[in-house]
């Protein structure tokens, strides 16, 4: 099952190659439109996924303390320039009423949200809101650190500049000490 219109992408890539002054019919470029279509299907595969669906897996476990999955690597595509931005997401939540999800599901949700044309802020808040809605925890804190190729290889050209975004909900939004604990666990 094809998730994107590959033929349309191939046509568009041929047009771009022509527009930049390339010859889409030269040997090295002949299969490029097909490769790019396949790549877009992969890097935008999150568009067909609802991140919340990953939180259907709920274990009844009496743990109302912090759970943190940190250093989850992700790759996304900046929606302004369609070039990659990539880094790590750290996902913390405090379960309530025994509603604990599978650890891998937190990383799966990051993947689903990242694999779309995106903004880093939206990745951060979408993960937080999905967890709040489905797990109804005491609190959630998401920290995302990323490097944007649109700031590295073009434009302002500042390689190494990192963007850090956070989204905090529930008790973690109110409790400065709990937030500091999450941050120190992420750092160590
Ligand atoms: N807030 C936010 N901005 C982003 C993100 N990814 C890229 N951008 C910014 O989007 C902005 C787009 O600015 P524009 O002025 O419309 O486009 P531009 O002329 O290509 O801008 P420059 O990158 O400054 O050359 C730039 O400042 C990018 O750094 C993101 O995830 N979040
Ligand atoms: Zn960009």
Q: How would you describe this protein?
A:
The protein is of the alpha+beta class. It has two domains: 6-43, GTP cyclohydrolase I, N-terminal domain (GTP Cyclohydrolase I, Chain A, domain 1), CATH 1.10.286.10; 53-187, 2-Layer Sandwich (GTP Cyclohydrolase I, domain 2), CATH 3.30.1130.10. It is built from seven helices and seven strands, in the order H-H-E-E-E-E-H-E-H-E-H-E-H-H. It has helices at residues 6-19, 32-43, 103-114, 120-135, 149-152, 171-174, 176-187; strands at 58-60, 67-78, 84-94, 99-101, 117-118, 139-148, 163-170. Strands 5-2-3-6-7 form a five-stranded mixed sheet. A two-stranded antiparallel sheet has the order 1-4. Strand 2 and strand 3 form a beta hairpin. The longest helix has 16 residues, at 120-135. The protein binds guanosine-5'-triphosphate and zinc ion (ZN). Zinc ion is lined by residues 78, 80-81, 83, 148, 150. Guanosine-5'-triphosphate binds next to helix 4 and helix 5.
